[in-house]
Amino acid sequence: RTSKTSPTGPRSMEPRPRVESSGALNDVYVKSQEHLLRPTSENPLPTSVPPPSAGMAGLIGVRHVLIVIGLPERGKCFIAQRLSKYLYFFHGAEVKLFDVAEYMGCQPVDIGHAAQPQDECRIEASANTLTRDLKLFLNSSGEAARRAGGNMTVPVPRNCQTAQARAAERAMAAAREEIQNTEQHLLVDEADRRRKNVDSGKVAIIFTSDGMGSFYEKWACTSKERRRWAAETIQSDKRLGAKVIFIEVIVNSAKLMEQNLLSKIRHERRLSRGAEARESRDSRQSREGEENARGIAVPSSPATPGRPTRASSSRNHGYGSGYDWSAAAAEALEESDDIPPRLVREFHARVNRFARVYVSLQEDGSEDDLSYIKLINYGDKVVTNRMHGYLRMRIAQFLSVIHPTPHVIYLTRHGQSTYNQLGKIGGNSPLSPAGEEYARRLGAWVMPYVCYQQAAGLDSLTKTRLWTSSLQRTILTAQHIPHPIISEEDLGTPSVPPEPDADDALANGDSPTRCSAGRSSGLRGTPPRASGLRERLRSGGLSGVVGGVALGGIDSDSDRGGGGDRDRVWQQMAPRVYRNLDEIFAGECEGMTYEEIQHSFPSEAKMRATDKIGFRYPRGESYLDILARLDPLVHELESYHEPLLLVSHQAVLRLLYCYLTGRTRAQAPKLSMPLHTVIRITYDGWTPPTEERFYLGPECSQTDGQTHL
Fold first, then answer.
1. Angle between helices 650-661 and 76-91 (to 10 degrees)
2. Which residues contact 339 (CB under 8 A, 6 or more apart)?
3. Of residues 269 and 374, which shows the higher confidence score?
4. Does position 165 have pLDDT exceeding 50, yes or no?
5. How far apart are CA 144 and CA 560, in angstroms?
6. How many CA atoms lie within 13 A of 388 on its CB side?
7. Residue 53 pLDDT more than 80?
8. Which end of the chain has fewer CB atoms within 10 angstroms, the N or the C?
9. Residue 670, number of CB atoms within 10 A of its CB
């Protein structure tokens, strides 16, 4: 972290709170159900709020306070961010992040030195401020909470005899008059309503982005005494009705620590370069303004071909630990796998100084009354204690699969289908001629640009995965992707120049272009090819699957268990078919155009226009239904270390794209997922999500029946 002192003196004692929210739900039910909750002649006393659906339920039950602890550089900030996004996106929970480091009001107490009386006062003040903000969040009861408890507020007639007579004689008029002539009666008072959590559950996640500087802060929970204080502070306030869960991140693998450190230094170096570039740009713009004012023309800088800028999908710079690596990262560390020895020694010295005074969660019985999760080496081993209930087990399950090492996800829609040409939605149509051409181009593009990933400044062969839906248009789109069997010795093999006929599948059409933030530019001029591997396939040296024809029976997960040769081979792009990835089911509207839907179902078309994410097609699905079936797949996706190519459909990819890039669910139905385009999304424990788009062609109409799906 940068110095907390300024040239004019120490920072103000008033803490500067920074509270981030994943976004509270505006409603507790979908808008397309609203007309069903109004009184009618047949139902003068309707249900005020329907039961929660999977995506709108929140996490009904006891409110929770999650406190993430552990040694520095373990990925605590990353875990807090990913857990927050997951609980909000797939369960509709209202989640807020509380960064302990942002509540420190002045220079922190150095580790190894006893806190002075003035430090104790400052620590107490910052703890009280965070506690106040935490309780304000947990006790807040907005419009959504009031509406969620609407069924416990019932109208009581002031004149029961008259109301009964009117209801028997004049149904509709009586219903309207009765609603106007009633007073509201609470079956459960407001305090109990909050305590019993009839509104959507709230989750507060407390972590620190400065493990070193915030060691002595009470909410950092770095000792048994501080953890006991935090638990008693929450549990002593009965009105909160909240439970505390401690999540300790333990990394004792030297390889994982080296990967974390390398990723962090690279990220800080990119930030440093970005700051320098911004300063250079600002200086140039200032100079241009001065030159233009004097009438001197200043030539513009030429664009660098093949070097698109990446579109960041997060507002913050990443998930930091509070240590300022910018100076250290100024050393000659590009994309190599070597860390300067001085940085390694400095890092271990700092962590060892922290570890000498840090107290891990004890398993000797002294903390058995606490609810906690010990996450050891990111899911290699998970220890839980007193983790009972739905939310707690969902948290433990999700934490067991996430990790801060790099994720590379490729998203692409199927090639253009015959229904796309006709403007129809749903169905199980085959590919059009343009879609078949895209399938061939995708098959030729995958090997050099997906199976080879950047490592140590070179494109090296790596393990890869492939998912498709069960509908034929996605399976046919992936049919030309090769599935060779590779051995452990092949991994890390650098790329070689392409063979003369390597681009035959891309001939007679447009060259693929890389798009970033809506711009297109040329791809790398010489794509790498696995020619050596291809020769081994031709000569029979390896078995594999090419063009959908099986040459061998090795499963892509064979390296996870078993013995013998099966532990040393991997099937590249082994096709895995998931019905969970199928397109949104339009029910009675399957196979219809939107003009036909508006003619046959005018009221449904109108409701869908006002509530695209919550509207459920007649006897069909809504976007919230898709969320429910994507939830288990996201757990598996988060656990992967290998690049994954996912061939699916527009509605499904909209939701996955929003989750992976940190967008809200409400944005999903409005996104454009163009045909014949591959979207590459990358993120790790320190770098926020970035995306690149590759347009492979051929040209086809993008105004198909899926535009408004």
1. 150
2. 258, 261, 262, 265, 333
3. 374
4. no
5. 46
6. 3
7. no
8. N
9. 9
